[in-house]
User: Fold this.
Amino acid sequence: MRVMKVRVDTDRCTGHGVCESIRADVFEVGDDGMVHLLNEEFTADMRPQLEEAVAECPTQALRLED
Assistant:
């Protein structure tokens, strides 16, 4: 099973919450105004929605790594 990881660039994140609206089980905007990951590793079946979250991030703060 291949595992992917999501990286958050905390210098770019401004807490818009677009990623959270796509996958609330993965992303959460905290009280600090930054997105936090609720999981660290993801499986291939999650890829389409993770790619959508990365693509839709208005500040390009997310990156998907294989």
Q: What stands out?
A: The chain has a mean pLDDT of 94. The chain has one domain: 5-61. Strands lie at 5-8, 27-29, 35-37, 62-65. Residues 5-61 form a domain with the Alpha-Beta Plaits fold (CATH 3.30.70.20).
